[in-house]
Every structure is written in structure tokens, then in C-alpha cells.
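Project outcomes to date are best conveyed with an example. Our students and postdoctoral researchers have been running inverse folding experiments weekly, and each run begins with a structure described purely in C-alpha cells. The record below, which covers 422 residues, was selected by the lab manager from last quarter's runs and is presented without edits.
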């Protein structure tokens, strides 16, 4: 299959079906591939077409449910969309092991988002800073006029802050609009506010505004979760100390911290995706927050309580919403929220933070004890079994034999399947 050209004028004007035909012709796709893409599953083509540009199909990702979670005293089933094996099982295991100690306790610092307005071309930035701050009530009026619906729901402008930064070509004056976006993720709301305020900032200061956009470092929207794992539930002091040593490693070494936080995000992003929220926004915020001290560090912290039990905490920006974007338009995302019984963006963020902590516990425990390959391999073995053509009962039989032989490989699976079929 070779693409003959990447120029397809007018592609965007076609229907998804027509586009698929066009792309198939251009890329030389066969009938099977066309039929595969034409089946959009539980996201109908018209809805998909209203979400992004140049739609030709949809991509299904498995949706699992994490069990055993107790968050602030409430039982909650957590839908997770991920392509990675072991992620859902890890949360189930971690949550089960802290149920006896009451599960997860969570809190949120607020639902404030920041939009930035960049101003350049002033020689006296401190003077400009005060000029902008003096217009706080004008800024409030502009912001709140921009989004009356948000105002009706108890949100809206909360504060203005102005920072003076040293740019390559002179000073930069950066205005932060601090806005309570309540149950919305808030990107659209605050971006519109920044665009509305920017011309006035230029007018008041005589400078020139460029960027007007939210910051994904949502550090006024921190979700916090904590939990205790008793020594008895985790299997003793040696396991606890292994987890503490793993945490220590992440906290002093960015190479390890990146992997440690990747594990946290395995859980976080899976729930963010399942609920139709913006995974990239949450990921960017999480990693920027992890680097706030100047060194990239762990998003979680692990300690020992007075009784020797293991305690874990997580604190991270979690800008997620219940209204707007795919959360509303994607039918699966709406049902995912129903499964969780979530009514506010705050509850969603807090639950996601708890999942991130659970995920990290499970990863550190596995790494500090048996290693992660054992668990991974059992699921990976099933994938391999399916890959070589095993069906029905054969899948488990081939997978078990692969694990028993300690050789989870395609050629071994083929041989096992062959001998099974006699
Ligand atoms: C794999 O997706 C995630 C882990 O690497 C996380 C970690 O190392 O902490 C297991």
C-alpha cells in the first residue's frame, strides 16, 4: 500500500463515508480495511464527524472497570479506557488492599483556571503591571460578560495577577486571569476571556499583546488523595520498605521519576479518557507540576505512620469537567460518568487522583517485590495466544502454557496451539 498523494482537495467537505472511499483509493486500502473503518462501533459516524475534522472512522480502546474503590466513604466503580494490560487490574488490587483502612480520602483546592495574556513592547514593565492591576473591576466586567452562563452557575472571574518576566527581547508583562470554571474544564471560557481582555491591556499600557490562552499548569485546581495501607494488608515491613525505597528513588532521580509518574498517569489518563476529558491537558499539567521545584519529582509521596503502616498521598492539577467537549458529545463518556455516579467536576477530579495513587501503589509494590513482568506476562500471553489464532478455550490453555514455560513468544504459542489441536 502506497499513498499516491497527500493532497486531497475538498476532503473536509465530504461525508465520512465518501472521505473513507477517497482515502482508501489514495492509500490503496482493500475492501476488508474499508469495511473495518466503516464500522464505527458505538460512536456513530455523524457524531464523530461533529467532533473532529476529516473523520473516516473511529478507534476503539478497551473500556474496563476498576472495582474495590472507596472514595470518601463511598463505593465507586471507575471506568478506565486504556490499551495497556495490567492497568485496570492494578487499581483493583491496590484499592482492595486499602479498603480495610477506609479507602481514599480526597479534597480539591478549588476549580480555578488561569488564562494568560502576553504583553510586550513596554519599557517600564512595573508601571504597566500596576496599570493593569488598577483595572481589576474593568477586567472582571469583561470576563463575566464573556460568559454569563458560567456566572449563572456560580463561576466567573475571581482575580487578576500580573507577572513581569525577562524575555529575550526585553520585558514581558504577563496577566493572569483567575477564573472559577466550576463543572466545566474551562478552556473555552478562559480563552474567550483572555481574547476579550487583551485589547484593553494593550490600550491601558501602550504595549502589544500576543498570546491569549489558558495555562495547563492548573495549580489552583489541585486534586488531593491519601490512603493508608496496613502492614498486614500489604504483606509486611519488607514490602513497605521496598515501596519507600522506590519512592525515594523517584524523588531524587528524574529518570526514575518520569517512569514513576508514567505509572500514575496510566490510571489518571485512563479515567480522563473514559470520561471524554482532555488527556493532554491533564498530562501537561501533571508533569509541569511535578517539575515545579526546578527538579522533576514524584507526584506521590510515601511515608510510614506511627503504627508502621504505609501512607500514600498524591497532589496534582486535575482540570476535568462534566460539561462541554467530548464529555457531553461522546455517548460512552456520558455513560462512564453514570457508572461513577459523579455529579460534579470536583468529585471526578478527586476520584481520578485516588486512581492515580492506587496505580502508583500497585506499580511500586510489584516493582519492589516480584517485578512487573509476572503480572504483565499473564495478560500478554493471552494477547499472543489470540495473535496466533487461538479461539475459545484455546486462548487460556495456550496462555497458561506460555507462562508455565516462561517463554511468552509467538513461535512458542504457535507450537502449543498446534499440539493442542493434535
Ligand atoms: C508501566 O506502564 C508503568 C510502570 O513502569 C510504572 C513504574 O515503573 O512505576 C510499571
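After processing, the design step wrote out the following sequence:
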Amino acid at each position: 500500500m502506497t499513498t499516491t498523494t497527500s493532497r486531497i482537495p475538498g476532503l473536509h467537505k465530504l461525508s465520512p463515508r465518501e472521505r473513507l472511499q477517497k482515502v482508501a483509493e489514495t492509500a490503496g486500502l482493500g475492501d476488508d480495511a474499508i469495511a473495518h473503518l466503516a464500522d464505527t462501533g458505538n460512536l456513530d459516524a455523524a457524531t464523530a464527524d461533529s467532533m473532529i475534522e476529516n473523520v473516516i472512522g473511529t478507534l476503539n480502546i478497551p473500556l474496563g472497570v476498576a472495582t474495590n474503590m472507596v472514595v470518601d466513604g463511598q463505593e465507586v466503580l471507575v471506568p478506565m479506557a486504556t490499551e495497556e494490560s495490567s492497568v485496570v487490574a492494578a487499581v483493583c488490587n491496590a484499592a482492595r488492599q486499602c479498603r480495610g483502612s477506609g479507602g481514599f480520602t480526597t479534597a480539591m483546592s478549588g476549580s480555578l483556571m488561569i488564562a494568560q495574556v502576553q504583553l510586550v513592547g513596554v519599557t517600564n514593565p512595573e508601571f504597566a503591571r500596576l496599570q493593569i492591576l488598577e483595572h481589576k473591576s474593568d477586567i472582571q466586567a469583561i470576563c463575566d460578560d464573556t460568559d454569563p452562563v458560567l456566572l449563572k452557575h456560580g463561576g466567573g472571574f475571581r482575580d487578576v495577577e500580573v507577572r513581569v518576566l525577562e524575555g529575550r527581547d526585553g520585558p514581558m508583562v504577563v496577566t493572569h486571569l483567575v477564573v472559577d470554571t466550576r463543572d466545566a474544564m474551562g478552556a473555552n471560557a478562559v480563552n474567550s476571556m483572555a481574547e476579550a481582555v487583551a485589547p484593553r491591556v494593550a490600550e491601558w499600557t501602550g504595549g502589544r499583546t500576543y498570546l491569549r490562552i489558558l495555562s495547563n499548569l492548573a495549580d489552583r485546581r489541585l486534586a488531593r488523595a491519601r490512603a493508608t495501607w496496613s502492614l498486614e494488608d500489604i504483606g509486611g515491613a519488607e514490602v513497605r520498605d521496598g515501596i519507600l525505597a522506590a519512592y525515594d528513588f523517584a524523588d531524587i532521580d528524574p529518570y526514575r521519576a518520569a517512569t514513576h509518574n508514567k505509572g500514575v498517569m496510566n490510571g489518571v489518563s485512563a479515567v480522563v479518557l473514559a470520561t471524554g476529558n482532555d488527556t493532554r491537558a491533564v498530562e501537561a499539567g501533571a508533569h509541569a507540576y511535578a517539575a515545579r521545584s526546578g527538579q522533576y519529582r514524584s507526584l506521590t509521596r510515601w511515608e510510614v505512620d506511627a503504627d508502621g503502616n504505609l501512607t500514600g498521598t498524591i497532589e496534582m492539577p486535575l482540570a476535568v469537567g462534566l460539561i462541554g467537549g467530548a464529555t457531553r458529545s461522546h455517548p460512552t463518556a456520558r455513560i462512564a460518568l453514570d457508572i461513577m455516579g459523579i455529579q460534579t467536576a470536583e468529585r471526578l477530579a478527586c476520584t481520578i487522583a485516588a486512581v492515580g495513587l492506587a496505580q502508583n501503589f500497585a506499580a511500586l509494590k510489584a516493582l519492589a517485590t516480584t517485578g512487573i513482568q509476572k503480572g504483565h506476562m499473564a495478560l500478554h500471553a493471552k494477547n499472543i495466544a489470540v495473535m496466533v489464532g487461538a479461539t475459545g478455550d484455546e486462548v487460556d490453555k495456550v496462555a497458561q502454557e506460555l507462562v508455565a514455560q516462561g517463554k511468552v513468544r509467538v513461535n512458542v504459542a504457535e507450537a502449543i496451539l498446534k499440539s493442542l489441536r493434535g
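Residues 345-368 form the longest helix (24 residues). The CA atoms of residues 282 and 318 lie 6 Å apart. The training component of this project remains on track.
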